[in-house]
Write a structure and sequence with these properties.
single chain; Rossmann fold; 2 domains; seven-stranded parallel beta sheet; six-stranded parallel beta sheet; globular
């Protein structure tokens, strides 16, 4: 069976971002053939990529509208990629090989282009939801009457009503889909994990006398790292160090906050690192930290990639969130808390660091085994195969 996937934001294992479809292709026992179409401008590294960066069966379409913020240039980048899909002969050549075409969100225009081409060539089409648009935009404060929201709402309706099947990654999206009374079948297919490349040595010099907490991911308000800095400032212990790996619009504000709180010697902003280099640092830390600001945005579940990587690294995880499908809550391995106050969080940090290292390591290894079992690429590939066959 040959599946063509249209995914505007494609990353492989040594690039930042969502590696969902790359991971699907890496199953050694894979009986599927893939062709994956993506844009050249990487949303996360803010760099242009080429086919050589990804390998065979990955097709990159040049997008010239680069952006660093969520502004009109990002919208033009969406539209440019979607337009190039429809008007490129190469797209039709690739689609002709397909048994099934999957058009993936988060934004909807690329999936809509994939639907149009699939209809033209009489191919079966599956709409994949990795992020619920335009609901996500509305939850972030954009008016539901904004012209872009209205257009995307119409596109979403067409995609859902015209698809032969729907795949969703956020855990509880089925509750959202019920209002559409879909005739097409739908299935929950979380992002599979593949083993991490841990051959590199850490480029960060660790102090054996210190305890290290690390965060890896985007630096945005969503992940409320200002709260973590405030909590750290309340701990009168000069041996606790915080490593922040990643970049984003909040980096400068966080650096100012760190300075104002007197944390210059305790907090290290390492910037964006290739995943393999980041993993080499994270695996040497005592506790890995994740936090997501309280929001009804997550009422239909989450699809947070960094937590899966934390688990694969086999380290103890401290998570601050209030949603049910937090992987720490689901697995029971690590510490998940809901109290969003610096005082409470500072106590939790001291509590987890007081756990004997051997006990923390044992819990981390159990988390690794859990994620391997429940997000196994072979199992999820088989589920995808069966779902595709069901609509043929």
């Amino acid at each position: 069976m040959h599946i063509v996937i249209v995914n505007h934001y494609l990353s492989h294992r040594d690039q930042p971002g969502l590696q969902r479809h790359y991971n699907l292709t890496q199953n050694r026992r894979n009986t599927l053939e893939y062709s994956i179409l993506s844009a050249s401008y990487n949303h996360y590294s803010k760099k242009q990529i080429g086919c050589d960066d990804l390998g065979n069966n990955f097709y990159i379409f040049k997008t010239r509208f680069e952006y660093t913020r969520n502004n009109w240039r990002r919208l033009l980048n969406w539209l440019e990629f979607s337009w190039r899909l429809i008007f490129s002969r190469r797209t039709y050549t690739i689609f002709n090989k397909a048994d099934v075409v999957i058009g993936s969100s988060p934004h909807l225009f690329a999936a809509f282009s994939a639907l149009i081409i699939s209809r033209t060539l009489k191919k079966k089409f599956i709409f994949e939801i990795r992020d619920i648009y335009p609901l996500t935009m509305i939850k972030h404060g954009v008016s539901k009457f904004h012209p872009l929201v209205l257009v995307m709402s119409a596109v979403e309706y067409i995609l859902l009503r015209s698809s032969h099947g729907v795949i969703y990654a956020p855990t509880y999206t089925d509750s959202y889909l019920k209002k559409y009374n879909l005739k097409a079948p739908y299935i929950h297919l979380p992002t599979p994990v593949i083993e991490l490349d841990l051959k590199l040595d850490s480029e960060f010099e660790f102090d054996n006398k210190s305890s290290y907490i690390a965060y890896a991911g985007s630096l945005t308000k969503t992940y409320c790292l200002d709260l973590l800095l405030e909590a750290l400032s309340l701990i009168e212990d000069g041996t606790i160090k915080l490593l922040i790996i990643g970049d984003g619009p909040e980096r400068k504000n966080l650096e100012v906050t760190s300075h104002n709180l007197g944390l210059e010697k305790a907090v290290f902003f390492l910037g964006y690192l290739a995943p393999s280099k980041a993993h080499a640092i994270l695996i040497n830390c005592d506790v890995l930290y994740s936090s997501v600001r309280s929001s009804d945005l997550y009422e239909f579940g989450t699809n947070i990639s960094k937590m899966r990587e934390y688990f694969l690294l086999g380290r103890y995880v401290l998570s601050l969130s209030d949603f049910d499908d937090d992987l720490v809550r689901l697995s029971g391995y690590g510490r998940a808390v809901k109290n969003y106050t610096p005082t409470f969080l500072s106590k939790e940090i001291k509590k987890v660091l007081s756990i004997p290292p051997e006990q923390r390591n044992t819990i981390g290894l159990k988390a690794r085994n859990w994620i391997r079992k429940n997000y196994n690429s072979e199992v999820l590939n088989q589920k995808l195969i069966e779902f595709c066959r069901s609509i043929l």
